Amino acid sequence: MPLRVVVLLSGSGTTLQNLIDHIARGALDARITGVVSSRAGVYGLERARLAGIPAATVPRKAYADDAAFNADLWREIRGMGADLVVLAGFMSLITVPEDFHNRIINVHPALIPAFCGHKMYGHHVHEAVLAFGAKVSGATVHFVDDQYDHGPIILQKCVPVLDDDTPDTLADRVQAAEREIYPQALQLIAGGRVTVEGRRVRVR
After folding, report:
1. What is the Cα–Cα distance from 69 to 158, expressed in whole angstroms?
2. Domain spans in the chain, listed from the N-terminal domain onward
């Protein structure tokens, strides 16, 4: 059976579309059983509709605290029958239930443990990389725990930082790496090739 995936997003859904496209051409043995957005009216919800994927909105701003938000979020996820939860530009901190330990993954636009953590997302990451003068950056796919950008690393891909880079040009290069390794990581999991030993992820 294909790996049943629920995708969480907060924006335009480009990562969702990348996964949809990989599944459609047979490069990813998975089925997206649902999409949940933390914001109403984003284009990621339209992408789900166009692909015939059930979608729901759990707006973070409607909740007084993280606990109430996560209770409803997990109610939606469980109702969609997820084997694996995929964060795709999801801008809210997710609480990891015990039965979803090492069953949630994320992609970060840098080489963890560098340039990561609270408030390090999107262009904030690329601006920090350039300000520091780093010569390389990249993308990291990792399992999610209760801290930002902290869980065990599944795959990483390095890209060069060029002398004339801007946050936009660096972002383009990093996003290309993300589009490559995120579906790869899902396929490894779908194929039963990934095991986690402490902080180390082993790929058979």
Report:
1. 35
2. 1-95, 106-197+200-204
What is this structure's pTM?
Answer: 0.95
pLDDT, tens digit, 9 for 90 and up, residues 55-79? 999 999 999 999 999 999 999 999 9
Is 36:58 a contact under the CB 8 Å cutoff? Answer: yes
Q: What pLDDT, on the 0 to 100 scale, is given for residue 32? A: 98
CA angle 157, 137, 95 (to 5 degrees): 75
Which tokens hold the place of 88?
């795709």
pLDDT tier, 93 (very low <50, low <70, confident <90, very high otherwise): confident
CATH architecture of 1-95: 3-Layer(aba) Sandwich (3.40)
The stretch 33-53 carries a mean pLDDT of: 98
**Which residues are the active-site residues?**
108
Q: Which fold has domain 106-197+200-204?
A: Rossmann fold (3.40.50)
User: How many other CB atoms sit within 10 Å of the CB of residue 16?
Assistant: 27
Topology match between the domains 1-95 and 106-197+200-204: yes
Mean pLDDT of 108-117: 96
